[in-house]
Write a structure and sequence with these properties.
CATH topology of the largest domain: Spore Coat Polysaccharide Biosynthesis Protein SpsA, Chain A
Number of helices: 16
Radius of gyration: 21 Å
Structural class: alpha/beta
Number of domains: 2
Strand order of the largest sheet: 8-11-9-10-12
Distance between the termini: 53 Å
Shape: globular
Largest sheet: 5 strands, mixed, barrel
Helix content: 25-40%
Amino acid sequence: MNIQSISSQDCRKPRATFKASYVTLSEKNLGHKIASDVVDAFNNKIFPEIQKTAFVEANALIRSARVGKTDKVIVNPEDLRHNVNFFALAAGSGSRFKELAQTVGDYNKISLPFKIDENTNLHMLDFAMAMGKYFIGEEGVNKIVASQPSGSFGDIVEFYKTHPIKETIVCCGDNVFGDNAFDIMKFFIKEINNPHKHVALVGVGRTPEEVANRFGVLNAKKTLKSENLKLRGFSEKPELEEARNLAIDGKNIANTGLFYISKEAMEKLMEEINSGVNNIKKNDVELYDFANAVKYIHSKLLDWVNIRPINGADVKVVDKWEDVGEPKALYQFADDVKHGMYLHNFPQEMANNIQTAFAKRVHIYPESEYPYINFSDSLQINSKKLAEAKNIEGVNIIV
């Protein structure tokens, strides 16, 4: 079936575009609780609303990506269904978030709940799963709960040892993106359909002062032919001087947790791993690391597919992104949601309810120099309650 053969009546049917959306969890890090409280809740309460328009939007997405009838991997939604896997990584411990999580309850950062209404909580992981809205099948998001930790990329490696290798898109479960899924997935579809592209990343512009010693930075290059950048290499949390040297028009391109790896490149990596060679190890516990995997694949493109790394990897720069791994970042994110950001991927009515709920829960209280996030059932904040609030990294936490 091609785009031209889909009638307007067909487009109105609530059809899913993918059967290949997965969230990776760990038994050690509340995996079964998150599976129930977050993933199952998403499948039951948020996914049915997303599903109503997913097929229609997928057709518009593919048309917008200017997909032709040539030997492309993706020409219509059925190709998306068969050829691409989407993984949201949510198996980490959330160590930077530990103090806040223990204050609020038995959560880590991706399962931290914000009450939206009497029946619905929203979690950080919901944003990552909604980011993969075009990858959700008839029954929603699938769960992979690992019994043993093997690193951030470990569950994907284990998955591909027993499942067919496909085009792979990965999103970190604690990252949020201001650009909507439509625009980012259009970028990925173009990359998937280009036989010369094997790695694609999403970056965000930040000043050298912001990224120095904090974020991984992409060594990228502008081109005259594309709004996207070419990827030269990676710099892990550079010192300020190096960050300044890597800047483009005064900004560094910070590496976010959203990327694509081609089927061919993944096959080469899995061939090495299955033969007993592991070049993406982080340490003796984290045997497979996603950052190491992307760097290693990029470095091997010439050997594996006869394409220079700079020509085989592209970077899309988004306007707004947050790694919500610490209370300050959580407050900034929540305040942005209060003003309507990060909600592109939710149905409009749900997005409005989320914005209203966040507006009630984040505020600069007049009697305090610090902002607060309110996790309590009561939204009434008085001086006594504020005085008793726990202050974590300059954010008052009210529970």
